[in-house]
Amino acid sequence: MHRGGNAQRIHWRFLxxxxxxxxxxxxxxxxxxxxxxxxxxxxxKTLVRVADGGRVVLGSKQDRIAVEKGDVLEWVTWGGGGxxxxxxxxxxxxxxxxxxxxxxxxxxxxxYGVFLKDDGSVDEFRTEELRREMRVRSESERELGVFNxxxxxxxxxxxxxxxxxxxxxxxxxxxxxRGPVTRTEWFKRWKERRE
Length: 195
Known about the structure:
alpha+beta, single chain, 8 strands, four-stranded antiparallel beta sheet, about 200 residues, two-stranded antiparallel ribbon, 5 helices
C-alpha cells in the first residue's frame, strides 16, 4: 500500500514585466488512485499581484499572461493518487511520514486511520478503532474498482468552480465554431448532419 506522490509548491517572483504561458494538466480531473487508493490532489496556479496583493486563479493552459515586476506565480503541482486501500498501510510507515512532514497528523487519522500519541508514536488501540470504522464505512459507501478517479466526470465538472475557482471547460460540441472553415461546403454539410 503506497501513499500517492506529494505535490510541490513552487513560487516564481518576476524580476521584470513581461508575459508568461502556462501549460499544465490535472486542474479538473484528479490523478487516479489504483486498487482502493484515493485520488491525488489537483494542481493550482495563482498569480499574486504585487501592486494590490490581488490573487488571480489561472487555468492550466493559458498564453500571454501579463506580469509585472515583483508579481509572484504560486504553482502547486498535482499529487499522485495512492495505490492500495489506505487503512491497510503499515501504521509505523504512516507515523514516519508524519515525522517527515509528508502527511499531517490529521491526514494520518482521516486518510489512513492512524491515530498518533502526543509523542508521535502510534496509538495501537485507537488506530485499530479508526480502521475498523473505516472498513465498515467503506463497505457500505463505496465500490472498490481498479481506478478511483475522484468521482464521475459530470460531478467533477459540477464542483469545478467551488473546488478550483475555475469554470469547467466546455466540450467541443458545446462551442460555436468560427473562422474560415465554417464557410466551406463540407463544413456546412457536416454541421447539418450533426444537428
